[in-house]
Amino acid sequence: MYPTWSEALHFAIGPGAAVLAGIIISLLVEYWPWFQRLAQKYKVAVYVGLCVAVPLVATTLAIATRTFGQWGDVATTWWPAVFQGFSAAGIGTLFHAWKPSEIRR
């Protein structure tokens, strides 16, 4: 019914990185007027940063709670989190930045 702690952390490290970053961005837009005044390129940078930070925080929580991973294991613990974060940011940015050309309309 509800995900386990391990499943929730795996979701945050994988496909949930962009989802959680989007939720945080929506809260920033709604409740922080300063964020609304930022130029679009800085909003994209915040989104990319959050997409990378979410899996890293989830990995930190997983290691701290001894759910999975190890502090010094870069290859199988930290690198996948960084990769997933940049993948989520890239896919999310391309998806929202793409505009159809005049030829296709």
Keywords:
105 residues; mainly alpha; 5 helices; 74% helix; globular
Stretches where pLDDT is under 50 for at least 5 consecutive residues are none
Describe the global form: globular
Number of strands: 0
Secondary-structure element sequence?
A: HHHHH
Percent of residues in β-strands: under 5%
Percent helix range: over 70%
Number of domains: 1
Radius of gyration, rounded? 16 Å
Class per helix and strand makeup = mainly alpha
Give the number of helices.
5
How would you describe this protein?
It is a single chain. With 105 residues, this protein is mainly alpha-helical. The longest helix has 25 residues, at 40-64. It has one domain. The protein contains 5 helices and no strands.
What's the short story on this structure?
Helix content is 74%, strand content 0%. It is mainly α.
Topology diagram in text:
Elements (H helix, E strand, L loop, with lengths): L4 H9 L2 H16 L1 H4 L3 H25 L9 H24 L8
Helix pairs in contact: 1-2, 1-4, 2-4, 4-5
